[in-house]
Structure formats: C-alpha cells, structure tokens
Amino acid sequence: MRKKIVAGNWKMNTTIQEGIALVNELQKLIHDGNIGSANVIIAPPFTHLSEIINVTKNSVIKVSAQNCANELKGAFTGEVSVAMLQSIGVSHCLIGHSERRSYYHEDNAMLNKKVKLALQAGITPIFCCGEVLKEREEGKLFEVIKSQISEALFDLSADDYSKIIIAYEPVWAIGTGVTASPAQAQEMHAFIRNLITEKYGKQIADETSLLYGGSCNAANANELFAQADIDGGLIGGASLKAADFYTIITSF
Ligand code: PEP
What pLDDT does residue 40 have? Predict the structure, then answer.
C-alpha cells in the first residue's frame, strides 16, 4: 500500500535557533501513535540539516534537503552534493521545486541528473512538477506535466522509479493562498497515476505516493487528502507553524 506523507518545505525561512524551536514544538505535538499512518518529513535549509537530524533522531520525523547539486563533486562553488547530504543522514531531497525551476533555471535534463544522483546516494527524491497559470488557462496543463515527469523520470529503471515520491504543485497555487480545488487536484493526480501506469505498470503506479502542494493548509488539507489519488501534501507556509502542520499531518 502506498505511503501517506506530509512533507514541510521551510524554504529560506528560520534561523537555526528558530528552526530547532519549531521542530521541538512539532515533536511535542507528535506522540507515539497519534499521527496514525502518516509519514512526516521536514525540509529545513541546508545550514540546519545536521542539527535537526540530531534533534529528531528518536522521532518519526524524517529530514529532507530542499535541493542538491547536479554534479557528484568538484569545482562547483556554493553547491551541496548528494554525498554530503548522505553523510549527515538526510533521507529525502526535494528536486524540481518550481522556485528552483523558475529562479535558477533548472530544466528537466538537469533534474534528471539530480534524481539519479540522489537515488545512487540512497536518498529518496521528492520530485516536484506543476504548471503555471498561463499553461492551465491555455489548456496545456496535461502536456506540461507529462513532459516534466517523462523527461526527468521515465528513463529510470522500474526499480529506481519505484523509490520516487511525486509532488504535484500547480505554480499558481504556491504561496498565493489560492488552492487547487479538490477536483482539480484529483484530476491531475489521476492523470499522473495513469502516466505511471502506462510506463511502469499498475502495481508501481498504485504504490507511488502522489502529494499535492500549493496553499494546502490546516483548513483545506482534509478535503484534499480525501481524494482517491492524493496521498498527502507538500506544505510550504503552513509548515512554519507547528500547530498548523500538526493539524495537516492528522488530516487523513
Ligand atoms: C511549496 O513551496 O512547496 C508550497 C506548497 O508552498 P505553499 O504551501 O506556501 O503554497
């Protein structure tokens, strides 16, 4: 059965002190068994990862990076490699977030390299895809998502592919307070699951966790997570408030 997952993307927010306070507050809310079958992942900034892995070592919370380099090692000033992430115990990595795609010009070919490097290092990619508003309005949303997913993921072996988590994040919904309706989100999730079925077969498609992201919050998570093909969320703003994030985690 596929995993239910709630992942928090802190983006470039919190100092290390604020980050530790946030994670401690979250850990006080999460007790044994009170989050049902939800898997919890947080993605703090690079500078916080080591300390937050240490602070969460006895908890169910897994720690993700927000990005990784598209090269193994060497003269790439300012970059952080998958080996570095692996060496401190990072379990997951966001790859292809729309802010990386738009501000840092990351394209599908580059994301394909990052996904493969992460997998080689034993790090689970949380691969993000999503259309911008214009693409939706022009009716191109399905072809955009198809090319993002097929170009970045579909040359993986079935074994490698089966380790991937996908987050559908319509760009027009990220950080805007505008959420995709449950029906809009479900429609795209069903489309993505169908793409995976065509490429890797029904069993792998059924086991792929598909997360929704884009202004998902404590008030709307329940309705979104109730959709047949939505297996959880990638949460930005609302993951910075422990109580809200906890409510989302318990929204299945
Ligand atoms: C995100 O950045 O992945 C995200 C979903 O942000 P927000 O929840 O703030 O829209």
Answer: 98
Which CATH number is 137's domain given? 3.20.20.70
Ligand 1 touching residue 9 (CB < 6 A):
yes
Q: CA 126 → CA 33, 162, 169, distances in Å?
A: 25, 12, 12
HEC letters along 156-194: CCHHHHCCCEEEECCHHHCCCCCCCCHHHHHHHHHHHHH
Q: Tell how far the Cα of 74 is from the centroid of ligand 1, in angstroms.
A: 32
Over residues 192-219, the pLDDT tens digits come to 999 999 999 999 999 999 999 999 999 9
Q: Is residue 56 part of a domain?
A: no
pTM value > 0.70: yes
**188, two tokens:** 């795209």
Does residue 134 belong to any structural domain of this protein?
yes
pLDDT of the residue at 83: 98
CA 167 to ligand 1: nearest atom = 3
Catalytic site positions: 97, 169
